[in-house]
Amino acid sequence: MFIIFGSPRSGTTFLKESLNQNPAIVIPHETDFIVPLAFLIDRIRDEQIGRRLVAQMIVSTKDFAASIGCYLAPSEVENCVYSADYNVPAILESLYALVAEKTGASIAGDKSPNDLGSFGILRNTQVFNSNIKVIHIVRDVRDVVLSLQSTAWAPQNIEKTFPGIWNNTNLNLRRFATQKPENYFFVRYEDLVAGPESILQPLCDFLDVTFDDRMLDWQSLGKDLRHLPHHKNLGQPPLSSRCYAWKDLGDAASFPWVARASEALQEFDYELAPNGQQ
């Protein structure tokens, strides 16, 4: 299986929906059980108790029916949990292998908003030392902040808190996941928007599937998500106007969050100020 990691408003849904149009790939709607699964197994060493709790937890999560529950019955989830070795990677691979098998896909993946922020527990439970592949998408934090500010669900003053979180979580994932480079694929949102096929083609190679032109059929993208205000642009060709929008707002010195994220901005080859000015 594979997991897509990325900060909110960084193109994770756009990437996930593009991949999902390839019949060799299946990614359920956002799940909410991977992080609790990791905590349960990390804290409960008794396998008999742990397996029972894990199986019950997965099918009881709020989004089970709308996500992985669209493919697996509760009894099938239970069988996967009890047949796999008692560790996070093995249980995940068992579940998602069955999702792929039942849909006729070659590989199944997951994209959940909480995974990047919970990097630590996933690291501790050996997710990044397993055969699970990691797709890491990053978007310039200044555009992420602007996009978050336009949503109804972002907290106030997010520009004061989020840049540091973006910096630390993305750097931690990159530096740890690259220790197993054969299982790590990095992409910048801006590069995906500028040339989707140039990113999706090698990404398919990374996932050991054949590229499919349907991945570029923007009109079919995310039909069941477009009613949500924060996904209203799904179904349109990639919008270059959503890249580097922060430059239109004036001197970068007016953005105090740059200092909080400068290490990751440089790591991911983003300029710190317009026209390369420091």
Automatic annotation (TrEMBL):
Q: What biological processes does GO assign it?
A: N-acetylglucosamine metabolic process; sulfur compound metabolic process
For this protein, the record's Pfam families field holds: Sulfotransfer_3
* SUPFAM superfamilies in alphabetical order: P-loop containing nucleoside triphosphate hydrolases
Q: Which InterPro entries match?
A: Gal/GlcNAc/GalNAc_ST (IPR051135), P-loop_NTPase (IPR027417)
Give the transmembrane ranges: none
Write down the superkingdom of origin. Bacteria
* One function term, GO molecular function aspect: N-acetylglucosamine 6-O-sulfotransferase activity
Its name, as the record gives it, is Sulfotransferase
